[in-house]
């Protein structure tokens, strides 16, 4: 049994695809991907617990050696997996669940592809990252805090101080620039979007209110630097001019999904997660990705990606349908979409045009036993208040 690709990112040369606790770098060809290198996170839970024990002994005058804690019956499973992957100009940045760390690779210009630059642990599990300049990673955690980390400095042992925080679970963070000033834009489970000055993060520039449910994805298109697109647990997503706080559009994608169900394009057999007793349940957006004039939206548990185009305003262009629910998606600088699904497959095709979709089945997906659970592949809907975990 093989684990699917749960996260994907890309640059001009490579697609970086994550399968459980391994990441694979593939060279991009016109209709195929060629494996260049791989890295597997071998962090062991027991080793981490032993390190915690040693740290307690080092910090205090203990009368006896503390026991290494062992999860008891009924304890939630601990997954060793890579949660996210992001590619910036010189770096590939991962968030890893096992030891709550951010792992940074520096890209090289040779056959090795990358070199491991830094592994930094944090007190809470990292969830979303962005880069604010050419050496500073901003990391948001599930607790609601955002930390700044210099990728060129050695790993820090003392506690980090957050540069900003939400009073709710932080779900997405991105960076933007306006009139030479830098800003951090962050979203949370409580429907809030916050625009914060950087590095003076004690100055909140504005709040953007337009969502009724959680916010799960934020993106500022490179070509349209004053535009912010946000989506989450609502049946619509929002298009903002974040520089003045104006809500420009609310696009109701839920109606499009309903039409695809009526037309037979979407079915309970292919997408059981978004159906209950033959009817669509509440939908949520997992990912919003932009490229040039286009924007791609994915919905949790759905095998269709919705593609929109910036004209006078954002309008629907077309859709991309695959054979299984979409887990991850990236768009290369050349305009190729790479889609990871709840299967062993990757799909490769052009964002626009009539070329055929290439179905790829890499041989190096992570093997898992039948008794070994997959990482939580459909966790976004659990952000909904009152959801059953």
Automatic annotation (TrEMBL):
One of its GO terms (cellular component) is tRNA (m7G46) methyltransferase complex. PROSITE patterns: WD_REPEATS_2 (PS50082). Required for the formation of N(7)-methylguanine at position 46 (m7G46) in tRNA. In the complex, it is required to stabilize and induce conformational changes of the catalytic subunit. Transmembrane segments: none annotated. HAMAP family: TRM82. GO terms for molecular function: enzyme activator activity. It comes from Kuraishia capsulata CBS 1993. One of its GO terms (biological process) is tRNA (guanine-N7)-methylation. This is Uncharacterized protein. Belongs to the WD repeat TRM82 family. It comes from the Eukaryota. The keyword Cytoplasm does not apply. Signal peptide: none annotated. WD repeats lie at residues 208-250. InterPro entries: Trm82, WD40/YVTN_repeat-like_dom_sf, WD40_repeat_dom_sf, WD40_rpt. Keywords: Nucleus, Repeat, tRNA processing, WD repeat. Its main location: nucleus. It is found in: Nucleus. Pathway: tRNA modification; N(7)-methylguanine-tRNA biosynthesis. The keyword DNA-binding does not apply.
């Amino acid at each position: 049994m093989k684990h699917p690709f749960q996260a994907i990112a890309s640059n001009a040369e490579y697609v970086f695809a994550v399968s459980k606790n391994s990441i694979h770098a593939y060279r991009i060809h016109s209709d195929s991907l060629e494996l260049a290198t791989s890295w597997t996170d071998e962090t062991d839970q027991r080793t981490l617990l032993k390190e915690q024990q040693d740290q307690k002994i080092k910090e205090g005058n203990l009368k006896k050696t503390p026991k290494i804690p062992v999860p008891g019956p009924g304890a939630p499973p601990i997954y060793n997996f890579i949660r996210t992957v992001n590619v910036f100009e010189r770096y590939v940045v991962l968030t890893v669940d096992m030891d709550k760390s951010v792992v940074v690779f520096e890209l090289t210009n040779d056959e090795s592809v990358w070199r491991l630059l830094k592994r930094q642990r944090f007190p809470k599990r990292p969830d979303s990252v962005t880069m604010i300049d050419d050496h500073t990673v901003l990391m948001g955690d599930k607790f609601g805090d955002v930390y700044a980390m210099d990728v060129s400095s050695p790993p820090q042992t003392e506690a980090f101080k957050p540069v900003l925080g939400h009073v709710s679970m932080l779900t997405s963070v991105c960076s933007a620039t306006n009139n030479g000033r830098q800003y951090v834009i962050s979203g949370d489970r409580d429907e809030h979007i916050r625009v914060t000055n950087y590095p003076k993060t004690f100055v909140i520039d504005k709040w953007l209110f337009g969502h009724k449910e959680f916010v799960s994805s934020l993106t500022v298109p490179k070509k349209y630097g004053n535009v912010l697109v946000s989506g989450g647990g609502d049946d619509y997503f929002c298009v903002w001019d974040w520089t003045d706080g104006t809500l420009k559009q609310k696009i109701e994608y839920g109606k499009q999904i309903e039409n695809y169900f009526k037309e037979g394009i979407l079915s309970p057999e292919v997408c059981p997660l978004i159906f209950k007793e033959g009817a669509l349940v509440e939908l949520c957006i997992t990912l919003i990705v932009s490229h040039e004039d286009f924007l791609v939206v994915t919905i949790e548990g759905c095998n269709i990606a919705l593609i929109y185009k910036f004209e006078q305003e954002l309008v629907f262009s077309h859709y991309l349908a695959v054979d299984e629910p979409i887990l991850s998606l990236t768009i290369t600088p050349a305009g190729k979409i790479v889609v990871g699904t709840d299967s062993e497959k990757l799909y490769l095709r052009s964002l626009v045009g009539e070329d055929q979709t290439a179905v790829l089945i890499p041989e190096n997906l992570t093997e898992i036993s039948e008794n070994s659970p997959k990482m939580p592949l459909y966790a976004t809907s659990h952000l909904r208040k009152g959801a059953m975990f």
